[in-house]
Amino acid sequence: MRKRWMGLLLSGMLAVLAITGCGKTDAPTDNATNTEETKETEASADKAESEAPVDTADKGDEDGSGSVMEETAADVSRIAIKAVENKGGKEVRIAALCCPYGPFWKEVVNGIKSAQTYLADYNCTVDIISLDSLDGQKWYDAIQNCIVKDYDVISAMGVSDSICSIVDEAADAGIKVYFYNSDTAMDCSRAAFIGQDLYAAGKYAADLMAEQLDSKGTVGIITGLFSVNAHELRRTGIEDQLKEKYPDIKVIPAVECKDSDSTAYDVAKDLVTANPDISGILCTANGQIGTAQALEDMGLAGKIKIICFDYMGQVLDFVESGTIAATISQGPFDQGSDPLIYGYNEVIQGKSEVTGDVFTKMDVITIDNVAEWK
Amino acid sequence: MSRRKKENSNMFLKRFTGSSEFGVVIALVLLCVVMSFLSPYFLKVANIINILYQVSQYTILAVGMALIILTGGIDLSVGYTVGICGCILACMIDRGTNMWIALLAVLLTGTVIGIVNGCFVTYLKIAPFIVTLGTAKIMAGLMLFITGGMPISIDCGLNWLGSGKIGQIPVAVIVMILVVIAGTVFSKYTLTGRNIYAVGNSERAARLSGIKVSNIKIFVYAIQGTLAALCGVIATGKLRTADAQLGNGYEMDVIAAVVIGGFSMAGGEGQLWGTIVGAAIMGVLKNAFVLLGMASYWQTASVGLVVIFAVSIDPVKTFIRQRKIDKGI
Question: By CA distance, what is B148's nearest residue in A?
Answer without folding.
Answer: A69
